[in-house]
């Protein structure tokens, strides 16, 4: 008897053969398989996987006891400390959504994010409590009678000023360990009924008026976590150093990947070359992720801060601004094995990889570095990656010269932007996610970014919108016109370079003084890394229709050479 399509496809789902995908189960398994293996190390503090599982369940239970669950957002403002790692499991175990906030932002921007996300809880590291407190005061003032203050939880750290902790407790904040004590270590959490349920919220670059909230789901987080391990060849028990901020795309989903691998996380509050080398020597670090700016710091570290040659091969994943070939070569000489990836917040972090080919092993180091500087091919968990002509959505020829826009499709593309239907319609036009990044496709199928259509500047691995900086510069009383482009920066990879045309009645003889005044003006409001580090005066080149010709400004910035040392 012939099997029909109905026979083979109509077998129903049931609890025995189907459950929603979620990375939360990785933690439960790690605690079962390796309960005594270190999960987190932070200075003298050490937790096992048994400890971490219990602490995350306590966090979920404590949140639910305060009616923080499905539909709630929990904001976390913290560097790479265990509490932030625990929040990546404890918050979604309660059914809530984690919003890890960039600690480099200023109070007004954080205030906007807290308000836009309607955060019910704010977990804040002791070092950044004053920043969070200022943000809440701004939010309360702007919300007026509609303000409902969130629950404040302060994460104590003995390395921070104890007076800040006392101030926080006086302001009604609950100390994190006390909060955990109110929770149940045996809390019977359950996975979401629907894997489309939101697990995380993260914000793209922008000033207080325009950051976009990227919403991610459990399915994507699960697939990306496993994809990271496959792409990188990470083994069970990997020892991972947290040089990449966990607030950056949820640590590129390595927060969840480390649990899947039953690995060990080495936390760093502050990232320095000395700390990296020390962790390799003292903890046997096997993997870490970092923006090119960090790699540059590592290869240029003073000899007394290094441990060369390395005691073992250390795997490094880099993304952000394209790493210079010279830095890749230097990392290889030092004994690091670098994997170059590319992605966005909207794709859970890195979603393409410059997959290394064995035939490249025999090439000269310069050629290897040049090939490895490309953005590469799609991740295992990404179903679609293409470079297209935006007019007709047809793929550009794989000739290495024809420029098109990079578009994505698949399970590791965001659900969408929170409360922003217009941005969603634009981002998902024609059934693809539009990155806004312009690239070519080489004959071997590897893509390479040539420009950024939205003029995004990537400084130290963080995105800066040039348009947003320009809009702020226009508020300076002496500025008539402004345009901002990326300038090569020895320390940060890229930094903002402002081209400014002053008003006619402004004295232009003392340009150095004016440049310093403009930077001071920006520092008073903008995040520190958004402040232009270079200011160039003069008329802006324009097209016949009055549009600023940014490609000419980029050429000028390139001709200026890299900024050798940050002025800020």
TrEMBL record:
Q: Name one GO biological process term.
A: phenylpropanoid metabolic process
| AMP-dependent synthetase/ligase domain span | 27-418
Keyword terms of this UniProt record: Ligase, Phenylpropanoid metabolism
> Which residue intervals define the domain AMP-binding enzyme C-terminal in the entry?
468-547
InterPro entries found in the cross-reference section: AMP-bd_C (IPR025110), AMP-bd_C_sf (IPR045851), AMP-dep_synth/lig_dom (IPR000873), ANL_N_sf (IPR042099)
Q: Which SUPFAM superfamilies match?
A: Acetyl-CoA synthetase-like
User: Pfam families of this UniProt entry?
Assistant: AMP-binding, AMP-binding_C
Q: Does the keyword Cell division apply?
A: no
* Pathway(s) annotated for this protein in UniProt: Phytoalexin biosynthesis; 3,4',5-trihydroxystilbene biosynthesis; 3,4',5-trihydroxystilbene from trans-4-coumarate: step 1/2
The entry assigns this protein to a family as follows: Belongs to the ATP-dependent AMP-binding enzyme family.
Identification of the protein by name = 4-coumarate--CoA ligase
Please tell me the species this chain comes from: Daucus carota subsp. sativus (Carrot)
């Amino acid at each position: 008897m012939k099997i029909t399509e109905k026979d083979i496809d109509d077998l129903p789902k049931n609890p025995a053969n189907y459950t929603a995908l979620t990375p939360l189960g990785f933690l439960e398994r790690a605690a079962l398989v390796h309960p005594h293996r270190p999960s987190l190390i932070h200075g003298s503090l050490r937790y096992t996987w048994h400890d971490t599982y219990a602490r995350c369940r306590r966090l979920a239970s404590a949140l639910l006891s305060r009616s923080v669950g499905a539909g709630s957002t929990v904001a976390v403002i913290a560097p790479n400390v265990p509490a932030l790692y625990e929040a990546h499991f404890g918050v979604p175990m309660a059914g809530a959504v984690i919003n890890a906030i960039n600690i480099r932002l200023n109070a007004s921007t954080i205030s906007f994010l807290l308000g836009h996300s309607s955060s019910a809880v704010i977990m804040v590291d002791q070092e950044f409590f004053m920043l969070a407190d200022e943000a809440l005061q701004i939010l309360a003032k702007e919300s007026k009678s509609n303000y409902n203050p969130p629950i404040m939880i302060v994460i104590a750290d003995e390395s921070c000023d104890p007076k800040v902790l006392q101030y926080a407790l006086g302001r009604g904040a609950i100390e994190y360990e006390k909060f955990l004590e109110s929770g149940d270590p045996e809390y019977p959490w359950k996975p979401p009924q629907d894997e489309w349920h939101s697990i995380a919220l993260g914000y793209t670059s922008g000033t207080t008026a325009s950051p976009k909230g990227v919403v991610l789901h459990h399915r994507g987080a699960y697939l990306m976590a496993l994809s990271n391990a496959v792409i990188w060849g990470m083994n069970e028990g990997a020892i991972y150093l947290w040089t990449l901020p966990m607030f950056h795309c949820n640590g590129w989903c390595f927060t969840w990947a480390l649990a899947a691998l039953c690995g060990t996380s080495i936390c760093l509050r502050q990232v320095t070359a000395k700390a990296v080398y020390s962790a390799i020597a003292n903890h046997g670090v096997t993997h870490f992720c970092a923006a090119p700016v960090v790699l540059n710091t590592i290869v240029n570290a003073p000899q007394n801060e290094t441990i060369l040659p390395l005691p073992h091969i250390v795997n490094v994943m880099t993304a952000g601004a394209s790493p210079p070939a010279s830095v890749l070569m230097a990392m290889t000489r030092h004994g690091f094995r670098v994997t170059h990836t590319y992605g966005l917040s909207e794709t859970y972090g890195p979603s393409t990889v410059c997959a290394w080919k064995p035939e490249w092993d025999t090439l000269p180091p310069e050629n290897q570095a040049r090939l490895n500087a490309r953005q590469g091919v799609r991740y295992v968990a990404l179903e679609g990656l293409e470079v297209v002509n935006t007019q007709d959505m047809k793929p550009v020829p794989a000739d290495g010269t024809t420029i098109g826009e990079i578009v994505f499709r698949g399970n590791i593309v965001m659900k969408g932007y929170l409360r922003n239907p217009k941005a969603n319609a634009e981002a998902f036009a024609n059934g693809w996610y539009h990155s806004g990044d312009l690239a070519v496709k080489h004959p071997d199928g590897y893509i390479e970014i040539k420009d950024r259509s939205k003029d995004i500047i990537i400084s130290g691995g963080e995105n800066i919108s040039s348009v947003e900086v320009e809009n702020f510069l226009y508020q300076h009383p002496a500025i008539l016109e402004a345009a901002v482009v990326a300038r090569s920066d020895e320390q940060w990879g890229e930094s903002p370079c402002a081209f400014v045309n002053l008003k006619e009645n402004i004295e232009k003889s003392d340009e150095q003084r004016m440049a310093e005044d403009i930077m001071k003006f920006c520092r008073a409001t903008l995040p520190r890394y958004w402040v232009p580090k270079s200011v160039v005066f003069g008329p802006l080149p324009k097209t016949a229709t009055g549009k600023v010709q940014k490609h000419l400004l980029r050429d000028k910035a390139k001709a200026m050479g890299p900024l050798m040392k940050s002025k800020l």
